[in-house]
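Amidohydrolase 3: structure tokens wanted.
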Amino acid sequence: MKRRDFIKGVALAAGAMSVGLSASEAKPNISETARSVSLQDLAKATNAMPEITIYTAKKFLTMDPTNPEAKAVAVVNDRILAVGSLDELKAMAKGQPYRVNHSFDGKIVTPGFIAQHVHPFLGALALESAIISIEDWDLPGGYVKKARGHDEYIAHFKEELAKLDKKDPEKKLPLFTWGYHQTFHGKLNRKIMDAIESKRPIFVWHRSCHEFILNSGAIKLTGITKEFIDTLRPEARAMTDLEDGHFWETGLFGVLGKLAPYVATTDQFRHGLKTFRDYLHRQGITSASEPGGVISKPMTEIINSILGDESTPFRFYFLPDGKSLAERFVDGDLIDETEKLLSWGKGKCSYQPKQVKLFADGAIYSQLMQLREGYTDGHKGEWMMTPELYAKAFRKYWDAGYMIVTHVTGDAGLDMMLDNLELNMRRNPRYDHRTTAVHFGVAQPDQIKKIKRLGAIVSANPYYVTALADNYAKHGMSPERVKRMVPAGDLERAGVHFSYHSDMPMAPAQPLFLMDCGVNRISTSGKVSAPEQRVSRMAALRAVTIEGAYSWRMEKEFGSIEAGKLANFTILEENPLTVESRKIKDIAVWGTVLEGKVLPVKPNAKPKSGKDTEESLVSAAPFFSSGAATFGKEDDHFMEHGDCVCALNHRFALAMMDAAQKSR
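Answer:
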């Protein structure tokens, strides 16, 4: 790093602070500002300057292409002052008080990881349960090992019951587990569970989140009877099996009001949010977001009370659910109603201004995405918003200057999004609109070119390939068509901005795991799915740092290690750019820095065994259903058209709030 570059950085930061601008906003005047600030001026100013903290590390991976690596970073309060070597930063401080922090020596420091898309409600409930799942979970309370095969699952199941028996010998407290999947764990039903325990209520929540299995104790506790099931709509009744204690898809939501008081209470949610908070910190996350969350002020206030607290080690952002708003206000005050939500945030939780989420086609886990060539078994995809409603909402938000984020999973769904984008660009051109395709389940080469030409960006879920490619090659699609799942390699070659997300709990919210999925594309069979669609390590690291920030229009504030940006860092034990590619997911997170505050993660109760295989971290599960679900209530369109986790999140949250209201 050159001396004059440091002076520019200091002058830039000082000038920006004096007029209330960020360093990035001041960049057009760097040369002029640097000339106007002499060394003598800087020397005089240092007497009144705050103390500098200079952090050293084995290496800083900055994500700044003009200065990609460094040995030290100088921080003042919550922002980065300069980037270089220790000797350079000490020499260039010019008498300003400073101290050197060697906490990160021997470690790799990246920009703070970004969880671009998570669901705190469903994530909190899953983490609040006893996890007996198909993959390992690195939790704040300990490392939960996977259960594989029927015998292993039942053994873990009995262990959880034994723990609860010690705590509650009278068997009044229910056991609530999450993570079961029949493909890996074999058959499970009411009869099998009753043979183990029939008195204590047991609620088994499926790994896909779309199913519940209850034992007789739980059936009795909830009051689910044949007479009650007979009152449900035919579509719901068809997806219930009282004898097996099995309720799925539409049938699950038909009985959700009975389940919610026991599996989704506000107390469980609050406690689960604390675990969710600590879980995200363990993964090195400094910023997270829920696009299209539940439009419920009481729900938002609960989230604010935990994630918005000043002790939370990250910032959390919401994007309004434009689908729900459009269904009510598309012909009225849609924009005004959307902007009312901006005041709902508190503390470290806030709504992103001028950003909104719309929905195209159905869930990829339910195999309800809209595909150009349809499905090999003849079933049909679904629209979450009708093309007519989507077009009207897109136009209104476009003309109001919004960044429009669209849930889209299939290539035909992507066609709808891109066609609307092109139409509105031709009608009312906009610069830097950043229209975003979220999930990006299946896409074709011509669509990649169109995304680039129209200036759109992508937020992709690389776990889809890991979890679904093998299964979908046999069911519903084909080996050749599966190669077009999440074609991020094409995005990288085309120069399209793309970020990664987990959609937790659909995938673990672990940025290093997502990087591993994108770099390797290893399916559950252990084979590489479409090797040409693998991305470079640098692109994968950018996808969980600077590109995540770019997808929120926050890249001027964080996402890279540059002068004037917030001091948000993730500290790693190994370098994800040089470690063996199959070990990226196993890199340990030492901690984070959030806005200048050093926040080590707490050690786990049990370390990793180091013996994980691809199968321990992925699901080969057939998560899809044979068709869409239907309901007969106000918000039934969610489950009637597409059945995605956002819809699931919505229905669960409303059921919890309704149960809480009735209990008062």
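The chain has 28 helices and 24 strands. The longest strand covers residues 98-111.

Cheers.
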